[in-house]
Amino acid sequence: MSSQPFITSGSKQKEQRPCAKMAAALRLAVAVSCALVLASACHGLEVGYYKKTCPRVEQIVRAEVKKFVYKNAGMGAGLIRLLFHDCFVQGCDGSVLLDPTPANPKPEKLSPPNFPSLRGFEAIDAAKDAVEAACPGKVSCADIIAFAARDAVYFLSRLHVKIDMPAGRLDGRASDATEALDNLPPPTSNLTELAGVFAAKGLGVEDMVVLSGAHTVGRAHCSSFVSDRLSAGEGSDIDGGFARSLRKRCAAADRIAGDEPTVNQDVVTPNAFDNRYYKDVLARMVLFTSDAALLTSPETAKMVRDSANIRGWWEDKFKKAFVKIGKHGEIRKNCRVVNHGYPHGHY
Ligand code: HEM
Ligand SMILES: *[C@@H]1O[C@H](CO)[C@@H](O)[C@H](O)[C@H]1NC(C)=O
């Protein structure tokens, strides 16, 4: 199992439960390591964090997200990606939302992985405005991203994929474009590179495979895949007919300067948060090298097949991995250095 031990896999428990389970499992373990683990893994984020300070926050965010997603499903895709891009860069701290200022002209949101493709900012603004009206100064932008991303999954899955999202994140004050470039994997990544980037955030290979399933919704700009996937003629790892249709669609890039064409990630059910992505991977009808790479090891290829074929397998794993991605950030053991080894990188 690739998951970190403090997140249970294959059970339907809420976030607090793994801690209880883990405490039991660790009863005989060295007292010192137990204390460290509990401090880092259990006293961080919690489900229902705003029960006392802003009891309606999750309903308020959900109502705003619903408006945006039902008007434009693409907003939902943007919100799901926003959590990933916030959390992989300096932890989940809302830093991806910060606009440029004279003192900081190149924040994360202007970095190539984010600009001009990242979207959903208006939905976050609307949610934050509504939350501030109800409980001023109580709810972090980082938590609003996490709730909104969770709600986007809920609506795009037609209310099937329900996630208890722990909260208690704080907003950061720094945002640097180069950090986004350094921490987010490019779509040209091979399996080794992907595994490395996710491992650096405390996420396993299985987490990486199940999270990639988010590419079952939304779009991509042609520049995200043309150069490596389409330029080499009929590449062997992409379906021929699919490649031809992409070439045709993306050729418009030459004609309309500044208005780059986009294509749907999942050609079959583009707005449905379902396991269709894995069927696309198997059919070699996915856009990125990083998507196709999931078939390049027997271990990950089996995860792709299980996601495609076993009812509920992917949804269950996705929910847990999505919560896990939302926990990136840490309470340092030594205030002078980032945490090393286990447990690192998680609230
Ligand atoms: C495994 C490594 C990953 C790579 C290399 C990758 C790369 C990309 C790229 C290049 C795009 C297209 C952006 C554009 O051109 O408009 C994209 C879109 C997207 N990604 Fe990923 N991604 C990865 C993982 C994830 C994860 C973990 C999530 C969320 C759980 C995610 C969610 C999305 C969504 C929803 C979209 C569509 C966004 C929209 O329509 O606005 N991706 N990704
Ligand atoms: C992945 O890419 C790296 C270069 O970044 C290379 O060293 C490695 O051999 C590649 N791995 C595979 C499996 O192709």
Would you identify the CATH architecture of the largest domain?
Orthogonal Bundle
The tally of structural domains comes to 2
Question: Which cofactors or ions or other ligands sit in this model?
Answer: protoporphyrin IX containing FE, 2-acetamido-2-deoxy-beta-D-glucopyranose
> What order do the SSEs take from the amino end to the carboxyl end, as H and E?
HHHHHHHHHEHHEHHHH
Largest sheet: 2 strands, antiparallel
Spatially, the strands of the biggest sheet line up as: 1-2
Instruction: Give the low-confidence spans.
Output: 1-42
Q: Could you give the distance between the termini?
A: 21 Å
Q: Return Rg in Å.
A: 20 Å
Q: How much of the sequence is in beta strands?
A: under 5%
Q: Which class best fits the helix and strand makeup?
A: mainly alpha
* Helical residue percent band: 40-55%
Pfam families: peroxidase
Binding site for Ca(2+) 2: 216, 266, 269, 274
Site (Transition state stabilizer): 81
Catalytic activity: 2 a phenolic donor + H2O2 = 2 a phenolic radical donor + 2 H2O
